[in-house]
């Protein structure tokens, strides 16, 4: 179970990205975080595995308080928190199999991780998982030969073989066309049920959230202004969430571009390091 308790995040420039955010996620719930651009969705996802350090509050995965862990303890705890990225974060020159296996790096000794020497059961598990996500037969393809949808499936397989307690997905469909976005969301819901773990998804496309999530958390200006099942997200709730909003956030749009910003932290690069077991 994930517990987020009174979490706030103020960036060094003074931007209050999260203000006293609290919620719990358990079972095999699919929880979609929606909200206008700049609402704090990515910050929230990144605080859960401390790619971004919260300024205040507590985050627990089951009985473990993530927020107070040392770097070394955090490395270990991150095995339990898998991450799926908008831009997939694959190592382009490596094969599909090598990318998926990197989800097990956190379980290897430093020496074996350095040599990328995986036990045969990891290799077998990776093979089965690739089959599971519809990429059987692609083990030896290079990541840069794949379509966006296939790359995201590799990202999902890499997350699955981590055997995490929770998956976080940061805009997993934003770089995909609508049809592929539906396929990826369907796959994520199946994975949550099969692995019996919750998935917390930061998503721009409200229609996808309504169709696939069990629960929706609406963020605006760093505060939770809605938390409930999709059936309850009526027009007035949407108005509350998007009151300062940005109409592009209401609909699926495969060509949405992300806003660039001055980063004091580099979640994506950090994320790559984590997935490659370097952090
Ligand atoms: N590294 C950073 N340094 C300073 N301010 C930041 C940083 N990252 C985010 N912010 C600011 O924090 C606020 C929340 O940003 P965040 O990226 O979490 O929102 P979001 O809801 O994910 O937005 P989007 O949907 O556009 O990705 C914004 O005002 C943003 O400019």
TrEMBL record:
Start and end residues of each stretch annotated as Disordered: 236-279
Gene Ontology CC: membrane
GO molecular-function terms, A-Z: ABC-type phosphonate transporter activity; ATP binding; ATP hydrolysis activity
UniProt KW Cell membrane keyword: yes
Matching SMART domains: AAA
Record-linked Pfam families: ABC_tran
Keywords: ATP-binding, Cell membrane, Membrane, Nucleotide-binding, Translocase, Transport
Domain ABC transporter: 2-246
InterPro entries assigned to the protein according to its UniProt record, in alphabetical order: AAA+_ATPase, ABC_transporter-like_ATP-bd, ABC_transporter-like_CS, ABC_transpr_PhnC, MetN_ABC_transporter-like, P-loop_NTPase
Parts of the chain that traverse the membrane: none
Ranges of compositional bias, category Basic and acidic residues: 236-264
Alphabetical list of PANTHER family matching this protein: AMINO ACID IMPORT ATP-BINDING PROTEIN, PHOSPHONATES IMPORT ATP-BINDING PROTEIN PHNC
Entries under NCBIfam families matching the protein: ABC_phnC
Protein name: Phosphonates ABC transporter ATP-binding protein
Organism name: Natronorubrum bangense JCM 10635
């Amino acid at each position: 179970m994930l517990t987020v308790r009174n979490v706030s995040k103020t960036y060094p420039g003074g931007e209050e990205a999260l203000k006293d955010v609290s919620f719990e996620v358990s079972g095999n719930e699919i929880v979609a975080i929606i909200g206008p651009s700049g609402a704090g969705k990515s910050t929230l996802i990144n605080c859960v595995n401390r790619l971004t350090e919260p300024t205040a509050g507590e985050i627990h995965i089951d009985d473990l308080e993530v927020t107070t862990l040392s770097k070394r303890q955090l490395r270990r705890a991150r095995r339990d928190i898998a991450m799926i990225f908008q831009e997939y974060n694959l190592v382009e020159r490596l094969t599909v199999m090598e990318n998926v296996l990197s989800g097990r790096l956190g379980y290897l000794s430093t020496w074996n991780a350095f040599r990328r020497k995986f036990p045969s059961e990891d290799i077998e598990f990776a093979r089965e998982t690739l089959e599971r996500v519809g990429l059987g037969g692609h083990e030896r393809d290079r990541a840069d030969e794949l379509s966006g949808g296939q790359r995201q499936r590799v990202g999902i397989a890499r997350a699955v073989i981590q055997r995490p307690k929770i998956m976080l997905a940061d805009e997993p469909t934003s770089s995909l066309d609508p049809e592929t976005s539906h396929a990826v969301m369907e796959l994520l819901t199946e994975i949550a049920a099969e692995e019996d773990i919750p998935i917390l998804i930061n998503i721009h496309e409200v229609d996808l959230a309504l169709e696939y999530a069990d629960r929706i958390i609406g963020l605006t200006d760093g505060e939770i202004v809605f938390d409930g099942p999709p059936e309850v997200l009526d027009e007035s709730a949407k108005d509350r969430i998007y009151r300062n909003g940005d109409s592009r956030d209401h609909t699926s749009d495969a060509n949405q571009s992300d806003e660039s910003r001055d980063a004091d932290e580099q979640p994506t690069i950090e994320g790559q390091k984590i997935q490659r077991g370097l952090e």
